[in-house]
TrEMBL record:
This is Monoacylglycerol lipase ABHD2. The keyword Transmembrane helix applies. It comes from the Eukaryota. Keywords: Cell membrane, Glycoprotein, Hydrolase, Lipid degradation, Lipid metabolism, Membrane, Serine esterase, Signal-anchor, Transmembrane, Transmembrane helix. GO terms for cellular component: sperm flagellum; sperm plasma membrane.
Length: 427
């Protein structure tokens, strides 16, 4: 009887059941984490019915076409974001550009890289894209290189700002770094382009933090919009003050992203600590002291770094004042050129509550269109096969496609105006 009991298959069957349950649980987690059941669809669009919007919908197929990320894993906003941020892009091109140096009034040295077009533009005219990268980014980042290479091949000259202090091989020449909304260096680059290429028209492009800077720059003065055909902002949050609370929450792992970005900012600031905090002949920013350096070492969030260091470059009395003054939100309604605002519904950095800002703007202004695909993460928007993404993304294609359409729109308007003037002259 004992031997018969030992030979019973019931015990192994229990083990097999546990294994099957474990496998099922793992598969369930994978499906949920990778959002494999999430549908694909065309991006959600917010705009007013106008001649411009109707023209854009006809001229930009990507606005109405289904965006399909790589099948297995890119329906996850976290993986899209990680691929952009850490895993980088595969087979990234290396466009050749010339680095330009501009001395700012306070002694800072602004730098940007200039890339000439590789083909004739679709309207046969001189058009320059002036580009502002994301936080602590520059022209050598792979997502910028990929976009620039594609824009060059479509006939655009590209000027890419290197955020002050972001390039590891460029020393600061004044005790100041880039901040969330300082437009000085971007404005200096734009003025250089206007002066050097008096016939060129400009397309303004900003990624993430760069989107905040370019929108704020255009809204600061009507003169800043002269010779600007349009503006494109990708994955910005619109209001740092509104984002303050959400960026400290663990929902969608934003607190973890906050920590990683703060760690990167800390390394950049500390690499320039001799200029920013050292005993030298350069005047330190207002109220910046050794105590702030100590706070920087222990900071675990961007907000702590902004409060102890970044706001003091421009003399803001509080973090609230810094975020209010440097956000583009008060300036958006002052932009009169066509404005494309792109976000992803699964962006883990930009809380969904912030998307009410571009949505409300698009409901009031005929020149504004808000584009919201289901997937894309933060500056991801990858396309490709089941596993491996293509280096060129949906975002890259959309920005160029939109810019091409606006160029065509403006040329058509100009030709109609010339025809009307000719007919009027004959009469």
């Amino acid at each position: 009887k004992m031997s018969a009991m030992l030979e019973t298959p019931e015990l192994p069957a229990v083990f097999d059941g546990v294994k099957l349950a474990a496998v099922a649980a793992v598969l369930y987690v994978i499906v949920r984490c990778l959002n494999l059941k999430s549908p694909t669809a065309p991006p959600e669009l917010f705009y007013q019915d106008s001649a411009l919007s109707r023209f854009l919908l006809k001229s930009c197929p990507l606005l109405t076409k289904e965006y399909i990320p790589p099948l297995i894993w890119e329906k996850s906003g976290h993986i899209q974001t990680a691929l952009y941020g850490k895993m980088v892009r595969v087979r990234s091109p290396h466009p050749y550009g010339l680095r330009k140096y501009l001395t700012m009034p306070d002694g800072a040295t602004a730098t940007f890289d200039l890339f000439e077009p590789q083909s004739e533009h679709c309207i046969g005219e001189d058009v320059t894209m002036v580009i502002c990268p994301g936080i602590a980014n520059h022209s050598e980042k792979q997502y910028i290189r990929t976009f620039v290479d594609y824009a060059q091949k479509n006939g655009y000259r590209c000027a890419v700002l290197n955020h002050l202090g972001a390039l590891p091989n460029i020393e600061l020449t004044s005790p100041r770094m880039f901040t969330y909304g300082c437009t000085w260096e971007f404005g200096a680059m734009v003025n250089y382009i206007k002066k050097t290429y008096p016939q060129t028209q400009m397309v303004v492009v900003g990624f993430s933090l760069g989107g905040n800077i370019v929108c704020k720059y255009l809204g600061e003065s009507q003169a800043n919009q002269e010779r600007v055909l349009c503006c494109v902002s990708v994955c910005q949050g619109y209001s740092a003050l509104r984002a303050l609370e959400t960026f400290m929450q663990w929902d969608q792992c934003r607190r973890f992203y906050n920590f990683l970005m703060a760690d990167n900012m800390k390394k950049i600031i500390l690499s320039h600590r001799q200029v920013l905090f050292g005993d030298n002949n350069m005047k330190k920013p207002q109220n910046l002291s050794d105590a702030d350096l100590s706070k920087l070492y222990t900071a675990t969030s961007l907000m702590q770094i902004d409060d102890s260091v970044m706001r003091k470059f421009h003399g803001y009395s509080s973090l609230k004042e810094y975020y209010e003054e440097e956000s583009c939100l008060p300036y958006l309604h002052r932009i009169y050129v066509p404005l494309l605002l792109v976000n992803a519904a699964d962006d883990p950095l930009v809380h969904e509550s912030l998307l009410s800002i571009p949505r409300a703007l698009s409901e009031k202004r005929e020149n504004v269109m808000h584009v919201l695909p289901l997937h894309g993460g933060h500056l991801g928007f990858f396309e490709g096969s089941v596993l491996f993404p293509e280096p060129l993304t949906w975002m890259d294609k959309l920005v160029v496609q939109y810019a091409n359409a606006i160029c065509q729109w403006e040329k058509t308007k100009s030709q109609c105006s010339d025809t009307e003037q000719a007919v009027s002259g004959q009469e």
